[in-house]
Known about the structure:
The chain has 496 residues and is an alpha+beta fold. 42% of the residues lie in helices and 18% in strands. It is built from 16 helices and 13 strands. Helix 2 packs across helix 8, helix 4 runs antiparallel to helix 5 and helix 12 packs antiparallel against helix 13. It is globular.
Amino acid sequence: MGWTECCRFKSNRYDRIGLFFVALKESLTSRGEYMGFIRAVQDLSEGVHFQKKSHPFIQKIWDDETKILQIFLEVKELQLPMNPQFISFINLSNGDIEMDVEKSKQRYQFKRKPGSAKWQYSPLIQLGGGISATKLNQVLLNQFILKVRERLFDDLEKQGVLSAGSGEKIESWLKSKFSTIESMVDVKYKTTVVFGFSHNGVRYLPGDLLCFDDYFNQKIHKDIKKSVHAVPCSLCGQQTYEKFNLNGVFNFSTFDKPSFLPGVDEKNLAKVFPVCESCFRELSYGRTKVEEKFKNTYTIPKTEIWIIPEVVSGYSNNSEGLSKQLAVKNFEDYIENDASMREKRVLSALAQQGESLNFHFLFIEKDQSREALLSIIEDISPSLLKKLETIWIKNIKQFQSQGNSKLDSCFLFITYTIMKDGKSKTNQMEVAYRKQTAVSIVSKLLRGQPIQTRSLKQEFVSRYPQIMHMDEYATIIRNQFRVIEFIEQYNKEVSE
Length: 496
């Protein structure tokens, strides 16, 4: 599909201009097919049995930089509304990494909340990282204890999960345990505080109790748009009166300019691309899987590259579902066992895959809960990636370099040379321009499109007055020549 950059920053805020939905409409009306990457994201849920209502939406709460502070509240009964009596146990956890990852995720039942919401999907709160030891006391007082009631317990009381007055009591108990909590927070890590519940000596995390699964699902259903007349789901075709919008899955698909698409505004947004609840859950699960399993964060600064596999050939119709599931699972296992993501060579690993898989790439820039879609590339075969890697190997030999021959190193080298080499006091506008240039070039390489080098040469030459005063000027200019030579060799090969 002929995609262009879809979203940009403007005046330090997102200017999401709706090209995402325009492309969707063009795809559906002009070609009668669904957008490839959306179908591929949905297919990642094939063969998965959702054991709980919250299952498709839950996200991993921990990583190597995160510790989890568990605070358990003793309750009289496990019946609603629960009546907390006192804090029964406080524990610093590594996220139960000894458990199966999916089971552990379901026990914590975490999902990032909408930016402005004064509630959480589950009784937990993130303190974040980068807290200095000297400021820890104030952070716990101002960002934890004083806000935990407003962000967690007020709504739990309102929805009947906890008895009236619970928030006030819990706030008082937290203050009485302040020194214990402060001593357990390790400032070298990000900290997430999770409230669990205990009864008769048994401790329960939120996902262990059905009431929190229901509470979670209630929040998900806030995004439902109800219609007087049934409309077909844009993915499965099923008639539905209750529909979701894609911005519930992909934040970059929202409208900031209602008039951009004629006749579309906030009141009838669901008419653009309505999705039934079943497809919404499958898409949500697929998106989470991409973020957790197939995300590249190292090629372009402050940008995530989502890699979405799609099975395209080699499978019989009568076993399509199982075969797709098996093919994606084999790919997932390969990526994990090969350590390619950890060792920053995942793109090279994609080039080694068979032709039964194609890949879609999304370049996404994030700012807290907001997302900007910088570029999207669909239907890329492993053979194209292999060709790019081969051209890079020729470039290494041509310049007698000792550099890494992996495709990831190629993209890193191009990005670094465009964004960093010759950089002195570069302002934000210049940084944004250089990043846009890097994203554009990498996107065209992935699409197999020719790249004009004239403007890039002019950009490099414009840096010479600044570069010539630097000790490493010869290396910088050599790197620039290498990038130009790589692109020109690439242009020759793609035009053949």
